Automatic annotation (TrEMBL):
Family annotation (Gene3D superfamilies): 2.40.50.100, P-loop containing nucleotide triphosphate hydrolases
SMART domains, A to Z: AAA (SM00382)
Keywords for this protein: ATP-binding, Nucleotide-binding, Transport
Protein species of origin: Aquamicrobium terrae
Superkingdom classification of source: Bacteria
Name of this chain's protein: Iron(III) transport system ATP-binding protein
GO molecular function, one term: ATP binding
PANTHER family: SPERMIDINE/PUTRESCINE IMPORT ATP-BINDING PROTEIN POTA, SPERMIDINE_PUTRESCINE IMPORT ATP-BINDING PROTEIN POTA
Length: 353
């Protein structure tokens, strides 16, 4: 049976070479439901690996508690926590074939031969490796080797699966394919999983929930949609996707003033009229036209990316805005120097407190 995970007031201090201390993880509180896949996402050094290693038992917390289900795990050594970790290096045994790689942990546990055979074959089937059972790892592609590493974890039927940037050694196309596979497999086997990455698209595509971390602190926990549409901070808005940050004045009646133009907003936080706050306006939520719109600007840069055109538009009094226009092959492109008109969609303006 898989377990839920609860993390309460978790801290990790390391001593630094200059004699001081580094707070790698600061007062982290998290609840991860049984069977969910939650991603720890953040820039290099934000503490995600340290948090994962504390959950696995490789690192001891300075303070705080880790529970699997109702059981406190702090004093539990890694080998009895019933977790399995998929690393970025494939960690397969080169001298054993695929079947024996997957069977390895079960043989150590001295399970009956017939049970080993049955479990290994089932997992090879689940990971699409049935046809490769007798191949040696050096006859496999990087993606297939990573599948062997994953199969070796799943066959042990751990309570918790941990992924430490498992796809970072693969090329872009294969990474995309593997993240779909990992997600489908995780949902099929239903093991509570924690996945570490610094790749926001990867996090968005595989997670039930994302934990955005910055300098040891959890900035926001939410579904991919919540984090994108309602970022809790400027850091989150900037880290997940692209964003324009626009100073706005709150008006009465669910509207804001942007540079003298009244724009309706979908969600108005509890703020007094007259207050100035920062709004997040996503580039794809701005309509660009040649004749009319809310703001007049001048195209300063054009990038044709196939599915979208990405523009940098200078608006008088508001600075440069990023604007993504869909289907440019059909719609045609504006050129550098063109005068354009921008209309942000009211439903996509998110106000930061
Ligand atoms: N053993 C250690 N001793 C001292 N400082 C450490 C140790 N391990 C990590 N740190 C520091 O703790 C902070 C968090 O590191 P951590 O490896 O958890 O970050 P990360 O988000 O996983 O980064 P990356 O994506 O680069 O792996 C960093 O400032 C790092 O330098």
């Amino acid at each position: 049976m898989t377990d839920s995970i609860r993390i309460v007031g978790l801290n990790k201090l390391f001593s630094s070479p200059d004699g001081g201390t580094v707070a790698a993880v600061k007062d982290v509180n998290l609840e991860i439901g049984a069977g969910k896949l939650v991603t720890l996402l953040g820039p290099s050094g934000c503490g995600k690996t340290t948090l994962l290693r504390m959950i696995a038992g490789f690192e001891e917390p300075s303070s705080g508690d880790i529970f699997f289900g109702k059981k406190r795990m702090n004093e539990e050594p890694p080998n009895t926590r019933d977790t399995a970790m998929v690393f970025q290096s494939y960690a397969v045994f080169p001298h054993l074939d695929v079947f024996e790689n997957v069977a390895f942990g079960l043989r150590l546990r001295k399970l009956p031969k017939a049970e080993i055979e049955e479990r290994v074959n089932r997992v090879l089937e689940q990971t699409g490796l049935s046809g490769y059972a007798r191949r040696s790892p050096n006859q496999l592609s990087g993606g297939q080797q990573q599948r062997v590493a994953l199969a070796r974890c799943i066959v042990m039927e751990p309570k918790v699966l941990l992924f430490d940037e498992p796809l970072s050694n693969l090329d872009a196309k294969l990474r995309e394919q593997m993240r779909v596979e990992i997600r489908e497999l995780q949902q099929r086997v239903g093991i509570t999983s924690i996945y570490v990455t610094h790749d926001q698209v990867e996090a968005m595509s595989i997670s039930d929930e994302i934990v955005v971390m910055n300098a040891g602190v959890v900035e926001q926990l939410g579904t991919p949609h919540e984090i994108y549409a309602r970022p809790a901070s400027r850091f989150v808005a900037d880290f997940i996707g692209k964003a324009n940050f626009v100073p706005v004045k709150i008006l009465s009646g669910d509207a804001v003033d942007i540079n003298g133009v009244r724009i309706g907003v979908r969600e108005m936080p509890d703020l007094e009229a007259g207050t100035t706050v920062t709004a997040v306006v996503r580039p794809e939520a701005i309509h660009l036209a040649g004749d009319k719109g809310d703001f007049r600007g001048t195209v300063r840069r054009v990038m044709f990316l196939g599915n979208i055109a990405e523009y940098l538009v200078e608006i008088e009094g508001l600075g440069n805005w990023l604007v993504d226009s869909p289907n440019p092959a059909e719609a045609g492109l504006f050129a550098t120097g063109d005068t354009v008109f921008l209309t942000p969609s009211p439903s996509s303006i998110h106000l930061l407190r």
